[in-house]
Amino acid sequence: MGDLTTISSTMLYITFILYLIATIFFAATIKDKRTSSKKGNAGKIGITITIIGFLSQLTYFVTRWIASGHVPVSNLFEFMTFFGMSLVLAFIIIYFIYDLQVLGLFALPVALIIIAYASMFPTDISPLVPSLQSHWLYIHVTTVSLAEGILAFSFVSGLIYLIRQIDQTKSSKRTAWLEVVLYSLIVFVGFIVITVTFNMMNYNATFTYPTGGQTLESNYHLPPIAGPNDGELLTKDANQPLFETPAWMHGADAGRKFNTLIWSFITGTVLYVLLRVVLRKRIGAVIQPLLKNTKPDLLDEITYRAVAIGFPVFTLGGLIFAAIWAQEAWGRFWGWDPKEVWALITWFFYAAFLHLRLSRGWHGEKSAWLATVGFAIIMFNLVAVNLVLAGLHSYA
Amino acid sequence: MNKIKCECGHVNPEGTVLCESCGKPIEGNQHIDGNDKKKLLNMRYDGTARRSQTYNKSIIDKIWSFFSSVKVGVWLIVLALIASAIGSIFPQEMYIPADAPSRDPAVFYEAQYGIFGLIFYQLGFHNLYSSWWYMVLIALIGISLVICSLDRFVPLYKALKKQKAKRHETFLRRQRLFSETNAVTDEEIQLIKQQLKNQKYKLQEENGHILAEKGRFSRWGPYVNHIGLIIILLAAILRLTPLFYTNEYVWVREGQQLVIPGTDGEYYIENKDFIIETYDKNDKKFQEAIVKEGGEIPSNFQTNAIIYKAEESSVPGADPDLTKIIEDSIRMNQPIQFDGYSIYQSGYQLNEFTNMTFKLHEVEDAEEKALGSFTIDLNSPKPEYILDNGFKVEISKYYPDYYLNDNNIPASKTNFPRNPAFVLLVYPPDSEEAEVSFLGIGKNIDATGENDYKLGITDFEMHDVSGLAVKRDYSLPFFGLGALIFMIGVIQGMYWQHRRIWIQPSNGGLLMAAHTNKNWFGVKKDIEKVIAGTQVNMVNDQQELDD
């Protein structure tokens, strides 16, 4: 079984590299268009590599399933990885409908960030606690993830729309908010950079900390800025943390996650400032000229359609299947658990989005902003609810 | 009623924006849909007369207009969204952790979260989702759903039924997709018609005017899904009544048989055994995860139970006769179900004390020879026990779950025998004077230091307790029905589109216009296929993108 687990991890690693290479090819399609009038091959190569990458990720998924004996969506690492895969699947489908190469240049990096982010959480194969032992785990989680992948796609096209359309000749609220969005993405990149750096240095600091009546161990792979609440440092040559994680952050390893968050923000900020210093322009202003060949009305339509297609799937997976499972496990189909509440909030939000599309004045840029907020809500539900708001779903 | 007669001869109801039959903009009403300021016509509800846009005199008109507004609907949704988010900042009262120092909400929120916790509690956000104002908000959304739908569905349905193939030229010119072709042959028209049919369009013709239409049923999707939501909201109201929903929680000790609460004494349950299992620490694939979790990951919680049905006893007042109806295990995700009731494995308590056996001996006796012994049933202790040799032991105080409270006074944390302790009075034969002993797990205290007799624990038995949730929910089918209808409606509305293409002869050429309620990319592709092989011009997208 150990071999299968290794194969599985390797396949995920290969997937990551393939998506990265595909992104580069999609970037090349922009150059193609600018220098010559005929369509180059870069796009075709890009989508081919993307599909191979997707198949490789599917292999990761299947081998891990066989190795663990249950569908690998049972902890945050597995779920986020699957979410990234759903986004790529949504991209492949939409690519063939709309034949728009620029989508790849944005969709794949977002998927890459999500997959890399997933590896922040423990990647060990963990056994299923009794409440998760149900075939509804497969049905509920995979449907939700697929829905969130499709909905996230509206953010991808919305983001392209915003970068393409927002007037960069003068500084405004809109340019500032767009920079905030881009900065947030760079924070995730910062997380990847800093994690990889310290992983290569093999950094480790071990703490013990009390939680729920037991004492647990927490392994920091980044130097501790924030230690666990009431934690005690075991590793001798490691620096003492500057402060402790507040007690209201629940969940296993809350201190380590919080520490990683701080590091991500620091690294992200440094990266962002460096970029600004080197480019001497807003990031949005740098990317904008590359997108002048894209059609804004088509982007707007893709944003809307992604929501229109994703919304029913989300209702089915995130609310109905979730309710059926909750009924079977706890005898109540709805319990106002934070994760449930945030699924409802996501649903409310996209319902509002769809209703606003009925009014004039909400197409185009406003829709694109809404798609961005929607993605922020999805990410909040995936990340912050597990880290900050404890509940039934606070596994991993 | 001021009916409006269009030049095409059709009589439209008051407030119509675009003639139901030919689509000509009706003068004086264009401000209603904002057509006066735009080149393109607002086709959202096909320019039909909506009650909310037409009448605004009486109070009913005003209420109707208020709730039928999409803007109001969206605001209600956004308010519900914000309220829901606020409620998730801190745990709701029911999710206060069991190991919290105090589970009293008045204490917990302030102690745990400081001033913000106190505000959260004082504003009643700890029970936000069952607060009257949250329910009012949801009810308002419900009202908005009904009125919005009626306001639009009825006129839209009529208009789409009455629409004619022959349209006014202005109507075509002011569509988002439009083209004009100067010369067209009959063969080309025939080819277009054939290709429209190949694309599964339904054709309506009138003097060379063509209306090609498909997917009209998708227009009803929103109204269908709103019906589903209304059913769900009604089901939620039904669920508030005990007739539809009962919810009980019961602790059953191993070996205990008791009546299942909420069943009117009709059913009994016996707990044969409670089982907890954990994953094997030596299992290679899970090893690392198990170590990280602190060495114990449960794999199964299970109660082996027997369910009995009570038959009326022939003797009034006597215990009922019990008939065994089910003997099965209750596990997570696998409740027992019978006669509308479901029993869920919801909690457990390991190692409670069933009984304790004591012996009495002389303090001086080094061999501690028993003068007598007795057993206390910890769930129903007797006030006193008479020993064979005439000794009497009286229970003066019983602490089922003993601890020393803040004032260093013995007290009981719960009523469950998890850590039993006693103050026992020992009366020697024929004596009125009692000796006082304090006994507990690992404690045996002679309060005065002058006792002649000593008690000791010689034996005990333990049991586990299962926490079971008993539910009966007749509202579930209604929720299921609502959810099903919602899904049908939302798929119908989102995954299909209502596409229409109008073709009009014009001085030997033709005008072509198209409208769809979504997916303009798709309808353009359709038109490309339809005009393939002809000289007809591709439609231009005249969309005015909003900034």
UniProtKB/TrEMBL annotation, chain A:
Signal peptide: none annotated. Pfam families: Cytochrom_C_asm (PF01578). GO terms for biological process: cytochrome complex assembly. GO terms for cellular component: plasma membrane. The keyword S-adenosyl-L-methionine does not apply. GO terms for molecular function: heme binding. This is C-type cytochrome biogenesis protein CcsB. It comes from Virgibacillus halodenitrificans (Bacillus halodenitrificans). The gene is ccsA.
